[in-house]
Amino acid sequence: MKKNFLLLIFTSVIFLFVSCDEPIFFMVAMEEPPLKPRINGSPTNFAEFNTEFDLKLDITLGGSPLINIPFQGTEPAVFVASGNRLFVYLEGDDDFDGVWISSDGFSSRIIQLAATNGNFYFFTLNDSNGSRTLQRVTVPKVTSNLTIDVLDALDVDEDKLFNDMLKNSTFTYTATPVDLTGVNGSIMSIFAANNRLFICTYNASAYEIYSITDNDPNPPQPLTIATDDNFGFLNGVAFSGGNYFLSSLGSIFRVSGTGTAADKVDVQESGAGNFTGILALKSGQVVTLTRGGSLYLVQASPLQIGSFIARFPGSRWSNSMGTLFVYEPKTGDSILLAGTQDSSVSTSTGNTHGYMELVLSGNGITTPITDPNPYSFNWPGRENHSTVDSYDKFVSTLGKQGVNHLYQAADGILFASTHQRGVWAYRYRKSGNYSWNAEE
């Protein structure tokens, strides 16, 4: 979006005047200093949803209108929340950094985001009275109207112009409470996949699961789960082959595309348990991660926890945070990312060693798996094919932080939602190197 808009700007200016070359200066530094995060605290997970854009640039000559350059349309955008504010990311390209902009504060703290194909949700917590609500977000919109004199446009600095447009942008949305008639207990978590939202509540010492589909305006419908099936806190949902796979600490369950019955997935592998996350790969395969750092395939036929794939190396790194995300590099195989936690650190502090990587075969796992440990997790930068170019830089930057969530935007930037240190990104810095640092 931004690249196309800037092409309109510079094409219009060049049409009016002859362009001139300007020297480019680079700041060389051995290390990138820590930046103050624009999105601070412990942000939520990330979500992506279609957003309306209405951007206008007025080029004037001596105060008189000369050219009006509009950009209007709808494009996917990445969202994250911290405290009571929702943020949207305006993506960049090879020449310009994308930037986050904030909405006005919501009435309660935003705990978690979730987006289906057609709906965007978040659930909130009122810290004063403990009440929790589920909100449906509609009409997320970014607007901006910037005026610049054509003489300034002749000597325009692209980064400054874009930053000025972002500073002049306004991000608005409408949030409407979802009818929770018939829903028991308090909302604990929400997860979305395909066209369905799943809601986990806690009621009288038991967890319950409800769901909403995009084409059903009725209140959430409960899932049928046998009382002896050990369903715990919902910590992930994946969609593959027309089925939804739900991850809880106790078990993995499968729900058909339109069904309300949750079938427990049999555990064939000894030691598989305490599941902390689940993800559908582009290959269609579903993988789940355990608290102990073991990765397994979830088989649909027969319905069971299947082959053991990989484990975190070393006993000290035995705890996973359940963060599973697939990073898509510009070239080469996809890389599965998994959040870690030093077992010597309490869970209340968040993981303190970032994430680990597992290079996939193309975009999936090669089967059948005959070797006891054919795949292995490794630290970022330890292998040539990685999310970062240096292991040492990783452990001295994001490796010091607790990483709760990861996401890659359409412009290729990898983001991390950290524990009490805000949103970070791996991008090209003023020092002339790629590095993890807080988003300004």
List the helices and strands and how they pair.
Blueprint (H helix, E strand, L loop, with lengths): L1 H15 L30 E15 L2 E19 L2 E6 L8 E4 L6 E7 L4 E6 L6 E18 H5 L3 H10 L2 E8 L8 E8 L2 E8 L2 E8 L7 E2 L11 E7 L2 E6 L3 E5 L6 E2 L1 E2 L7 E6 L5 E5 L3 E7 L2 E9 L7 E9 L7 E7 L13 E5 L31 H6 L6 E6 L5 E5 L4 E6 L5 E5 L2
Parallel strand pairs: 1-7, 17-21
Antiparallel strand pairs: 1-2, 2-3, 3-4, 5-6, 6-7, 7-8, 9-10, 10-11, 11-12, 13-14, 14-15, 15-16, 18-19, 19-20, 20-21, 22-23, 23-24, 25-26, 26-27, 27-28
Low-confidence stretches: 14-30, 344-351
> Could you give the count of β-strands?
28
CATH topology of the largest domain: Neuraminidase
Question: What do we call the CATH homologous superfamily of the largest domain?
Answer: Kelch-type beta propeller
| Range of helix content | under 10%
Quote the distance from N terminus to C terminus: 21 Å
Q: Indicate how many domains the architecture comprises.
A: 2
Instruction: Give Rg in angstroms.
Output: 23 Å
Shape: globular
Structural class: mainly beta
Roughly what fraction of the amino acids lie in strands? Answer: over 45%
Figure out the total of helices: 4
On the 0 to 100 scale, the average pLDDT is 84
What's the architecture of the largest domain, going by CATH? 6 Propeller
> Could you name the CATH class of the largest domain?
Mainly Beta
Let me know the largest β-sheet: 8 strands, mixed
